[in-house]
Amino acid sequence: MSEIKTQLVVLGAGPGGYSAAFRAADLGVDTVIIDAREALGGVCLNVGCIPSKALLHVAKVIQEAKQLSAHGVTFGEPTFDLDKIRGWKDSVVEQLTKGLSGMAKMRKVKHVQGYGKFTGPNTIEVEGKDGITTITFDNAIIAAGSEPVSLPFVPKDERVIDSTGALEMRDIPSKMLVLGGGIIGLEMGTVYHALGSKIDVVEFLDQLMPAADKDIVKMYMKTIKNKFNTMLETKVTGIEAKDDGLYVTFEGKQAPAEPVRYDRVLVAVGRKPNGSLVAAQKAGVTVTERGFIEVDKQMRTNVSNIFAIGDLVGQPMLAHKASHEGHVAAEVVAGKKHYFDPKCIPSVAYTEPEVAWVGVTEKEAIEQGLNYEVATFPWAASGRAIACAATDGLTKMIFEKDTGRIIGGAIVGTNAGEMLGEIGLAIEMGADAEDIALTVHAHPTLNESIGLAAELFEGSITDMPNPKAKKK
Amino acid sequence: MANLIDIIVPDVGGEEVEVIELCVTVGEAVDAEASIVTVESDKASMDIPCTDAGIIKSLKVKVGDKIKQGDVLGQMESGAAAPEPELPAATESQAETAPAKAPEAAAKPEAPANSTAASTSSKTIDVTVPDIGDATEVDIIELLVAVGDTVEPEDGLITLETDKATMDVPAPEGGKIVSLAVKVGDKVSKGSLVLTLEVAGAASASVDSDSASTPVAATPSIDPAPSAQASPAPAPQTPAPQTQAPKAPPVPYHPSAGDNVNTGKVHASPSVRRLAREFGVDLTQVQGSGRKNRVQKDDVQSFVKYELSRPKMNPGSSVGGGNTGGGLQVLAQPKVDFAKFGEIEEVPLTRIQKLSGPNLHRNWVTIPHVTQFDEADITDLETFRKEQNAIAEKRKLGVKITPLVFMMKAVADALKQYPAFNSSLSESGESLVMKKYYHIGIAVDTPGGLMVPVVRDVDKKGIMEISRELMDISAKARDGKLKATDMQGSCFTISSLGGIGGTAFTPIVNAPDVAILGVSKSEMKPKWNGKDFEPRLMLPLSLSYDHRVIDGALAARFSVHVSGALSDLRRILL
Questions:
Q1: In chain A, which residues have their Cβ closer than 8 Å to the Cβ of B266?
Q2: Domains of chain A by range and CATH?
Q3: Which of A333, B246, B315, B382 stands the most exposed, by the fewest C-beta atoms within 10 Å?
Q4: Which tens digit of pLDDT belongs to each residue from A36-46?
């Protein structure tokens, strides 16, 4: 048993945790980071955002190669070497995690491997391979993240997988059910579909990606109708594991009458916070029934020297939210009077095409009774989109009606996630439609659709019929 | 069938005028009488209305163009089948109403071709906000009329509140309210459309000539820009019943208070928000200096600097029983449940009280006051005054001379002799602003509270002239018809309670003035003339002054000078 004394302990080395630890170290705070994995980076780097993007890249190239036959270039049927694909994915992860441990060493952030549990407001015990380490700390940042929700009626069977299992990619099932029409399920469905699986998606609500606006998802649905068999307003009531497959019983609007056989079931119905797994109560920190830890705008819990960030402090459970919260918590620990005070946090589904939104969605605008106006530029009017066969896209911007100030935006289409940044910046800077419309966007780009949507609002558009022409 | 007609500039007073606003756009459907452009001459601004209902087909002018009578503004497609009406007749009567839209007495435009072609049919006119001093974006705090109401000329239409005063916008003519263009809470500036009024055509000519002959200060030659200085009680009482809920007391002048359009959604980038958080600054309180009022880092810094340096004023405590310390680091007032001791009723402060309270409080707290008491022998003066009044009555001059007029003359004379009394401390407190004019504020007791209208150039006016003016403004004050400009520019204030009683009192200096003369009730007293006691009519004088500017000896001399002048008016002539 070893003992460590430190100014700051960070529990969890995901994007929130390592950002907090590195920031604190850079501000001169003696920092220890605890994580069960040998590699830093948490779910995001190891079994989340990053490996899934490596596979989605593969899927995208396969699909584009196929599409090219319509334009006169035909490739042969692709053959897949799963080991090599997996190897590529793993190499991406390795490169990044190696980079992280290098940076940790450089910053003299000590990594204690194991599961940490609080034993008091200033002590935590880490149970690892090499026994128990007791850490005495002045401040702590809880960044223990979240894990996939598992469903009670789902049998324990290796053919039932979650996102981690899907990323392992042991084989390519011929028929897979994606249980849950959220971002994670749709991304993995996209990968497996490209590699040859037949994909069914079942969603309990009436819309895939329920947080996004209907018109945006409708455009997405249009593009995937030939790829996925989507069952909305339908739920799974039972999964029976038989030798020849998993027999799934459905109930609801689009439920098949008979149980359907699948080779795999990917459960992607959401993630639950790990607030209850770190014995935070022993430090006096309040954890809600659902496992969240409540914090103030400085990321401080009810115990003044203990902070919490990331998935376990609330939605949205996104890496980029966690890393910003991590910076704030570290800066507060280092004595700065900083607050987590963004106007918006972007959400991106890295499906093909991508679906991305930031700021207020139209449904939120209606809920909040905002006086807003929407301007939507369809990519069918974009030269670049036509030229790269990406006309299935929309750029939608939501403006405050009186001031023209931008309050939200959503994009569906190729590279939507990359384009979203401009809208986020515009919201943070308080730009209005005129500012965006007067910003010269490069032509031809998909990105210029943002400027064009702003022109639509302004009534200065010339690339399509101008509904406001007479009023201006 | 529709036909195309030219829109021609009517008589606009015989000179070139500048287009300052286009009120319509091409393609817009307009009603007859709707304004097409607003023009501004060096005397007034007026709207040029169109003669017919129809659709604007083209506009040949733009903002900044100079136009004159007979120019073509553009073309419109008239909905009527009738041929183009004879323009001159129709437009001339419009042109007449135009000056009435700017019912600002000081800048009365010469009514062009006045009282010709009085139309007999009723017509509508636009009533706009008159000159309200330097203030722009002024809050409308009350609507005094509703659509369908009939108003008399000079009736209050809406009440405006600036950081200095409240004032009513009067009806330029009698008539019926056709439509209201504003609501409570709107911000308006000079020239903003308030409402449309339907007036009887015949009435308009008489109203025009009427108001043209109104003996208001016709030459605004000495019109000191309404300075950033607040006068203590510059608010006319609104004649309408106050149905509005009591408004929150005004906050003392603050660079970032006031027209805050941000209402919670602050225009500030993340880095500025972070800085604000660090200082605990509420960004909704900070006026942004950037483009589109964006709050910049400098704004946050100067806000903090200002907040740290400014004396903390709490209007709640300054007007009464507020329980904060008023920023003076004194004990808060204890809370008292008066109902415990007997029946009570809570009556809201009048608007004037709410406005003047914080100013009085500031003056009381920030100015080191000293009050000098004296008496003036006005026995001879009163004899003279009564004789003159008797003569005036015989000649039916319609003027009554009050003792106050002589006091004003005496004070003006003393101000000339002791210029320190005719000064203001500069903003920095490093120098004195010496005034070369002699405007005297008169505290007037009105049903709504204390008001201080200003009589200008007292030194240049005769007793009769001042008497007339005094009667006029007193009546206006009591009727709540004083304009903000009527209450600006005073050098010195006289507060006379002589008509009521009392032997002396300590008036509060009306900043930025540096002194104020309080006058109490005159009394017959035995005075030793060297041989025996003689009954003399003595007038008690209480001179409060700002001791930072005036020292005691000077105040005594000033007070002796005033008293001497009142004892023997001939001294003023010397």
A1: 430
A2: 2-148+272-333 (3.50.50.60), 160-269 (3.50.50.60), 347-458 (3.30.390.30)
A3: B246
A4: 999 999 999 99
